[in-house]
Amino acid sequence: MIIDELRIVGSTQTNVVMHAELVRVAQRALGRRPPEPRKEGLGTLVYPFDPDLAWAAVTYLRTPTRVVWDVYRSTAQRLEPLYDELVRDIHLDPRRLFLDGDGISVEVRRVDEFAAGERQIVGTVKNALIDGAHARRVRLHVDPERPVTRWIARHDDRNELIVSIDLGGGSLAHRGWRREAGEAPLREHLAAILLMLARFDPRRDVLVDPMCGSGTIAIEAVLAARAMPREAPTLAALELARDRKAVPLFPDAAPLVVGCDVDLEVLAIARDNGRRANCGDAITWQRADIARLQPSTIAEIAAEHGRPTIDSGLLLMNPPYGERLEDPELATLYAAIGETCKRFGAPWRAGFLVATPLFEKVLLPILGAPRIKKPLANANLRAYFYLWDL
Question: Is this prediction's pTM over 0.85?
Answer without folding.
Answer: yes
